Amino acid sequence: MSDTLDHTRRNFLYVAAGGMGAVAAGAAVVPFIGSMLPAADTLAASKTEYDVSTVEAGQLVVIQWQGKPVFVVNRTPELLKEVDGHDEMLKDPNSEEIEDVSAEWMTPENRKYRAIKPEYLIVVASCTHLGCIPLYKPSVGRKEWGDSVPENWPGGWHCPCHGSLYDISARVINGSPAPHNLHLMPYKYLSDTKVVIG
Amino acid sequence: MKFKHFLTVAGMALVLALPFAALANEGGAALKHAEVNTADRDQINRGLTVFTEVCMGCHSAKYVTYKSLIDYPEIGLTREAVDELRGDKPITSGLISDLSPEDATVSYGKVPPDLSLIVNARRGGANYVYSILTGFEKDPDGKIPDGTFNEYFPGHRIAMPDPLGWLDHDEADTAVLEAQAKDVAAFLTFIGDPHQNERHAIGKYVMIFLILLTIVLYLLKKEVWKDIKH
Amino acid sequence: MLEKMMKTKLFGWIDERTGAEAILKSQLTEYQVPKNLNYMWNFGSLALLVLVLQILTGIFLAMYYKPSAALTMGGYTVAFDSVERIMRDVNFGWLIRYMHAVGASAFFVVVYMHIGRGLYYGSYKGPRELLWIIGVVILLIMQGAAFFGYLLPWGQMSFWGATVITNLFGALPVIGGFLQEVLRGGFAVGDPTLNRFFSLHYLFPLLLAAIVGGHVHALHVVHSNNPTGLDVHEGKSTIPFHPYYTIKDAFGVGVFLLFYCYVVFFNPQMGGYFIEVDNYVPADNLQTPPHIAPVWYLTPWYTILRSFESKLLGVVAMGASLAILFLLPFLDRSKVRSARYRPVYKQMVYLFFITVIVLGYCGHSAPTPTLKLIGQIATTYYFAFFLLLPFVHKFEKTKPLPEEI
């Protein structure tokens, strides 16, 4: 014990044992935390197929994708016109701050529609503020909304929780607490009307 | 005999005896041995084919999804192959037989058991499956009608009709049928515990690591204790 | 290393507010332990390790397990399906579940060794009576926790095991029917039973953790026994727990993990002993499996139960076989603790160990007249061992005790 060589050996063994113990503990964490990630069957259910032709003109349908609500809107030509003319009211008219810009089909002309086929808008139905589901308030019902929304709002979605407003392309209006436009999710058309989301 | 020695002997005897004791098949003849290799992708895939073409006529394997046939590296089917196999069933569906429980009860008097766990749920495991499939004989006592007598089934009278056509097969087909039975036993062994190969693979590293760790701890123990006289 | 850590500023700050230094000193660095403990003394710390492993794996399993007996396709249930989902779909679910299932058996292996050591070296004798009694309480709660846990997969063995055991309680006079209803929550074992068993299976380990704390505290008051059974004198015959026994226990943990991980990774069902074959068959309340037996760690008591023709007598005997453990410190009147110096007791205790193994074997096997007779003989000795103890010291010539350990 008094001899230095002995001391070195002992210290080495302490460090080796301690190090290996730490490695073992670290490795043991992997399966436990790993088990809390989504399971294989949950991941397998991560895609949703939907036939957009079942949505009637001007109507909105809420479907489920990965347990989250998703809006599918059939936008009539009249509604499609309403995407223009209020860019100055929007926080992010071209959705540059969110992942939308990276989508392959997102051409500059497509930006204002935010959809592969402009007539069918498909967006995640969670307000980007705190996740409530915004109410669909298209321009046709303008009178019914009364004072709950500003006079010059072009119509779209109104979040009941904290009053965020979106236009008919689900782009957020200036002055809303929501920081971003409603999110898009990856999707593609399998046929003319059948989309797979996810 | 010292206490320690007694315990060592008793412990060793138990550990050695335990795994063998429970393997015997109760109430049937001694089982035939099936060579199955759950790491043999070819054998498992051949077994899958037998399963989907023969067994699935009546039996399901509800815990095995079509998706998993792509995901398990031991099976590794392509998406296209699975799409063909599943028809219009969803990819998250299990391998479910088209025979309804009601129709099965009418035809066979009972609902055929789900086969997802059959190897785990029968004493003898894969050997049991293999033996049953190749166990259709003529009743030596002539009491049980042909096709319902199985040498290896407890009580010998089996409700399952001879699935591989073993009873009246030609001598020349013996090897083929035996291979089919072994293959499907291998497939069923695999799906009974689909992570077993992964488990063994990880286990090897764990054991090597633990042996090293234990050696280091032993040396450290000796080192720390060497000033203690006892 | 611990000493270095205790000199740091941060530790000083904590110490001022918690008295951590005094605790660490009294429990570790200055806690005196006899220097001659053999490796049989490792099983205490191993039991603690397994308890922690069981609680940890159990918490993660409970994130996916669903205690519902609602039927699903193919005669399975929501509960059974959720276990299979853990085994197949949950990331590393197979590992955590096998760790838990093997851990249950490992817990009993370790604790039975721990109890055997206590018996052999007379660790139950004064002043450690209460330490022993707390230990018996721990054993009973463990058996309860294991019994509740075994129902959860809702396989054939789960269901029929629970049916048989709840019927046992029903055999008791006066309170039997009441107890049975309280356990089952219905006319037979069913969905309400499963739900309450899950709740209790979660509760019992927490109770266990608290009582284990009491066990360790009691130990630190009366201090460890040792292979000679002599009272130790501080200084000459003792060494501090840390670093000597922390390191020795760590080595024991290494050896234990070798066995444990080998089984978990290469033979988790242990040929049907750790996870029974019939428990892969979904529970069917209309069909009893041809041969039902409890898991191995409960089979000795099951044999005692079966050794009596009368149901009531069997239940009472089984209860008595456990209850008599509480009395052990008061039954043994010898002044000498360790079997090393007690030739008669030594033979008796060896025979007792063999008896328990024989009882276990009989309980696991299908009953035959021969086995039944063997079981009855073993049961007789099981009780005889305890009932002879008050008289052994009268004629036993103990060997001379050494002066010092």
Count of spatially separate domains of chain A: 2
Strand content of chain C: under 5%
Separation, N- and C-terminal Cα atoms of chain C: 29 Å
Quick one: which chains have the greatest interface?
B-C, 52 and 53 residues
> How do the SSEs of chain C run, as a string of H and E?
HHHEHHHHHHHEHHHHH
CATH superfamily assignment of the largest domain in chain C? Answer: Cytochrome Bc1 Complex, Chain C
β-strand percent of chain A reads 15-25%
Number of strands of chain A: 9
Q: What's the overall geometry of chain C?
A: globular
Weakly predicted, low-confidence segments of chain C: none
Number of domains of chain C: 2
Query: What ranges of chain A have pLDDT less than 50 throughout 5 or more consecutive residues?
Result: none
Radius of gyration of chain A: 26 Å
Distance between the first and last residues' Cα of chain A: 66 Å
Radius of gyration of chain C: 23 Å
Please, could you describe this protein's structure?
The complex is a heterotrimer of chains A (198), B (230) and C (405). Helices cover 23% and strands 19% of the residues of chain A. Chain A is of the alpha+beta class. A three-stranded antiparallel beta sheet of chain A has the order 1-9-8, with no helix packed on it. In chain A, strands 2-3-4 form a three-stranded antiparallel beta sheet, with no helix packed on it. A three-stranded antiparallel beta sheet of chain A has the order 5-6-7, with no helix packed on it. In chain A, strand 6 (156-158) and strand 7 (165-166) form a beta hairpin. Chain B has 230 residues and is mainly alpha-helical. Chain B has two domains: 26-194, Cytochrome Bc1 Complex, Chain D, domain 2 (Orthogonal Bundle), CATH 1.10.760.10; 196-230. Chain B has nine helices and two strands; from the N terminus they run ααβααβααααα. In chain B, strands 1-2 form a two-stranded antiparallel ribbon. The longest helix of chain B has 30 residues, at 196-225. Mean pLDDT of chain B is 88; it is low at 19-25. By secondary structure, chain C is mainly α. Chain C is 66% helix and 1% strand. In chain C, helix 7 packs across helix 8 (156-170) and helix 12 (299-306) crosses helix 14 (343-364). The chains are: A alpha+beta (198), B mainly alpha (230), C mainly alpha (405). Chains B and C meet through helix 1 and helix 9 of B and helix 5, helix 6, helix 11 and helix 14 of C.
